[in-house]
Specification:
elongated, mainly alpha
């Protein structure tokens, strides 16, 4: 049995185990159908010849590593590759989009009883006074008239 066939079988059994686990957890057809689809991928790659190429590539890298003398340049190269991978992974966890605007911290405001406000707690809510909308002769604002017109058009009221 060739190594590429063994790799294919191991991958298919691993995907089968994951599929059975997902099915046991959810009891739905979706993980089963998806698992069968993913199980066919290694088999198709084997029949297409890609698995042989991958196995030969891994064996070539192992041979290269065994016959290469480790030096300072290789140490720096390995460190830079590792740092690059770590930074790429960390970048995926950083928030996306623009940074939210920061508010300027204000001095503690005295609470209702004259005590300073505790940081992290909102101050006592003070109702914001807005000027009352101007009412016309019939006692309705422009917004009220607009709402009544919409209701009349739809046959309500």
């Amino acid at each position: 049995m060739s190594l590429s066939l063994l790799v294919t079988i191991v991958l298919m059994v691993l995907i089968l185990a994951i599929t059975v686990g997902l099915w046991a957890r959810h009891h739905r057809a979706r993980p089963v159908v998806g698992g069968i689809g993913w199980m066919l991928v290694p088999l198709g790659l084997y029949l297409f010849g890609i698995t042989d190429l991958a196995v030969n590539g891994v064996l070539s890298i192992i041979d290269w590593a065994q016959r290469t003398v480790w030096g300072d340049a290789m140490t720096w190269g390995a460190a830079l590759v590792g740092a690059g991978i770590v930074l790429a992974v960390v970048a995926q966890f950083l928030p996306k989009g623009p940074k939210p605007a920061q508010q300027v911290p204000q001095r503690p405001v005295a609470g209702a009883a004259g005590r300073p406000q505790v940081p992290g707690r909102p101050a006592a809510a003070k109702p914001q006074t807005r000027p009352a909308p101007a009412k016309s002769k019939d006692g309705l604002t422009d917004e009220d008239r607009e709402i009544e017109e919409l209701l009349r058009r739809r046959g309500i009221g």
